[in-house]
Amino acid sequence: MYNEDQITLLDTEEDLESPLDQIKPLEETEIVKPDPELMLTLLTNPQPQQRMLAARAFCDITDARATPQLIQLLQDNCPLIRVSAAYGIGRNPSPEAVEPLIDRLNLDFNGYVRKGAVWALGNCRDQRSLLPLTEALKTDIPAVRLWAASALAQMTEVGYEAIITAIPFLIEALVQDPIAAVRSNSAWTIGQLCKELPSNVVYATAVDALIQAFAEDQDLGVREDTKAALLGVGDPHGLQLIETLENEGWF
Predict the structure, then answer these.
(1) pLDDT tier for residue 219 given thresholds of 50, 70 and 90
(2) What is the phi/psi pair of residue 23, to 5°?
(3) Mean pLDDT of 71-78
């Protein structure tokens, strides 16, 4: 999906965070909430720094009036503005933002922007987000795959068909992804989705995949996360197998 020049912008496990993740919160006594009215006007300011400041503000402010302008900023020339706009939309999701976010995910060369788009698409809780998120989970760089796995947990709010469509992609990532953190997030999301399923073939396949990862994954963190997912689901077969494996000294 992306060539080597594109993925080198963000393709190591150390780069799984976003530039916005590095912004340290102010001490409680120093917090001054931005003025939404001022920030709304700055979203269209000709100065890039002002637009970025405003877009970042709406990562914390909930105000639906900002969303149309944030959608426009997804096409800004500055990638820091685009990523800020994506996070702002994630805080202020809208059905109108889904297609523009999908375009960013499919077309943007910058991994941070795609990561923000994935998070925002999850928060939009829209059927249209499902296939782009599963495609990102299969083909994108590690940081984007990591968040795509988590974003797919929002399919619990979309409906049964979305859940059963997402699960095979998550199982594939749980079993095959080379990055442990992606496998862990996939396990967590499978657990969340299984809670919404009846006891059917899809549910049983998902639980079996969690059990397999718990028994076989070489990474301790992945095994712990799959165990937590199984405990959260509360499947009797899974719980019994965990107890058996631990009593037999497998771990």
Answers:
(1) very high
(2) -75, 115
(3) 96
Residues 6+ apart with CB under 8 A from 23: 56
pLDDT in tens, 169-212: 999 999 999 999 999 999 999 999 999 999 899 999 999 999 99
Provide the residue type at 212 as one letter.
Q
From CA 227, how far away is CA 85, in angstroms rounded? Answer: 36
pTM: 0.85
At 146-169, the pLDDT tens digits run 999 999 999 999 999 999 999 999
The angle formed by the CA atoms of residues 182, 81 and 181, to the nearest 5 degrees, is 10
How far is residue 120 CA from its own chain's centroid?
8
Q: How far apart are CA 117 and CA 84, in angstroms?
A: 10
* Nearest Cα to Cα of residue 188 among 176, 208, 204, 170: 170
Single-letter amino acid code for the residue at 69: Q
Q: Answer whether 119's CB lies under 8 Å from 16's CB.
A: no
